[in-house]
Amino acid sequence: MRTLVRTLAATAIVALFSASPGAFGQAQAQPGKGKTVHYAQGDSLGGNYVAVQLVQKAIKALGYDVTLSTMNTTLFFQAAAQGDVDLATDVNFPQREPGFRAVEKQAVVVGSGMIAGGGINGYLVDRKTALAYNITSLEQLKDPKIAGLFGTDGKAELISCDPGWSCGDVVDYQLDKFGLKQNVRAVRGKYEALMVDAVARVKSGKPALFYAWSPSWVVNALVPGKDVVWLPTPADALPPNVPNKGSALVNGVDGCAGGANPCRMAMASWNWGAVANREFIAANPAIKSLIEQVKFPVATWSRWEYAISKNGGSPAQIKKLADEWLATNQPQFDQWVATASKAQ
Questions:
Q1: pLDDT value at position 323?
Q2: What is the mean pLDDT of residues 61-83?
Q3: What is the mean pLDDT of residues 174-186?
Q4: DSSP class of 115
Q5: pLDDT > 90? residue 236
Q6: In this structure, are strands 87-93 and 271-277 parallel, antiparallel, or unpaired?
Q7: Does this chain's domain 33-117+271-341 share its CATH topology with 120-264?
Q8: Core vs surface per residue 58-83: b (16+ CB within 10 A) or e
Q9: CA end-to-end span of the chain
Q10: 215: phi > 0 → left, psi -120 to 50 → alpha, else beta; which?
Q11: Whole-model pTM?
């Protein structure tokens, strides 16, 4: 009997070890097997939707099932706090910092942002006018003659953000803080439509003044340093409802007027951040490791944004953009997944 038991045990051990490369390898590569990730994306369509598709593919490669829903960030914070949603990777920080702080006992920021190096926000004018009148600072719009170049009634028309967007609050606050309201009128409306007109103006050689951010379709259509220049602000200044981390002085900004370096932007760098339910992320170290690795260059984001702005951003187009990225970056994607699969 003992001989039989020993024989069976030895056979089982041999079978286990002979199968171990595949079995253990599969287990290691599939830490999410049998689990579902409830993943959310914001309701603001852009390059973030392409990134979501790629992150979703990576999560599935780790063995997880994924449900994807679309919701505004305020609703996401509530859902994440309650455990109804596990993860979002396109939360705009620092603008969304106040909303996050209300749920940080139940939710946590994961990683340092999806945009490599972060993004920038600020004011731009067409390069042709900037060079002709030596415009190198937003503060020069205090001069009625300079401001009048960008309007039809002696006041500059500055294209600002959609009503309700926090960047519009920043513009209003800074125009007042910098003493520019007398000469500059902020125009708030549907940003995309207003900017289509601004792009056309610049392309036809006419003056234009607007607020924008990078990465975005705008700075792909109007390239800083070539078509437009960033106007440095005179000082850091933000309204109370918009938190700021660090200085608005940013090094290496391409196309900063007058070649200024650092260039003082409207605010410090921003990023698409990932936020997860605390219990979920603690129980899923593979997801944490994955999110900490995933980053895309600013130029990649801008190309995505531009393609979406031109073609409407249908689900088929978003998928195509994600597939195109994956086709040329498969080794990077595989490395993300391989590293995440080993996390404990």
A1: 98
A2: 97
A3: 97
A4: B
A5: yes
A6: antiparallel
A7: yes
A8: bbebbbbebeeeebebebbbbbbbee
A9: 41
A10: beta
A11: 0.82
Single-letter amino acid, residue 55: V
Two tokens, residue 151: 């309007």
Q: DSSP secondary-structure letter at 44?
A: S
Which strand ranges, in their side-by-side order, compose the sheet holding 228-231?
A: 184-187, 156-159, 209-214, 120-126, 228-231
Could you please report the per-residue DSSP string of 242-296?
A: S---S-SEETT-TTBGGG-SSEE-SSS-BEEEEEEEHHHHHH-HHHHHHHHH--B
Using one digit for the tens of pLDDT, what is the confidence trace for 224-234? 999 999 999 99
Q: Whole-angstrom Cα distance, residue 130 to residue 207?
A: 9
Three-state secondary-structure class, residue 163: coil
Name 263's Cβ contacts closer than 8 Å, sequence gap at least 6.
Answer: 122, 230, 232, 249, 250, 253, 256
Q: Which residues contact 1 (CB under 8 A, 6 or more apart)?
A: none
In the structure encoding, which two tokens stand for residue 318, read together? Answer: 């978003």
Q: Domain 120-264, what fold? A: D-Maltodextrin-Binding Protein; domain 2 (3.40.190)
Q: Is the pLDDT of residue 34 over 80?
A: yes
Nearest one of 334, 342, 344 to 285, comparing CA atoms = 344
**Which residues is 249 bridged to in the sheet?**
264
CA dihedral 192, 194, 198, 201 (to 10 degrees): 130
Pairing of strands 36-41, 65-70: parallel
pLDDT of residue 246: 83
- Domain boundaries defined on the chain: 33-117+271-341, 120-264
Fold category of 33-117+271-341 in CATH: D-Maltodextrin-Binding Protein; domain 2 (3.40.190)
| In contact, 48 and 305? CB cutoff 8 Å | no
